Amino acid sequence: MSNENVTQRLYLGIDLSTQQIKCIVIDEQLQTIAEEAISFNDNSLLVHHVQPNGFVVDKNDKRCITTP
Question: Does pTM surpass 0.70?
Answer without folding.
Answer: no
